[in-house]
Amino acid sequence: MYSLRKALFDAVEESISNEVSLAVAFSGGVDSALLAKICKDLGRKVMLLTIGFPGSHDIEFSKMIASKMGLSHKIHELNEKHFCKDFNYVKTKINCKNVSHIENCLAFFYIASLAIRNGLGLILTGNGCDELFCGYDRYRLIYQQGKTSINELMDQRIADELVLMQEIQMITTEIGVNIKQPFLSQKFISYARDIPIDQKIRRSDDFIRKHILRESALLVGVPKDAAMKPKKAIQYGSLIHKKLNTLNKEEYKNRKKAI
Question: What does the alpha-carbon distance between residue 157 and residue 202 come to, in Å, rounded to a whole number?
Answer without folding.
Answer: 19
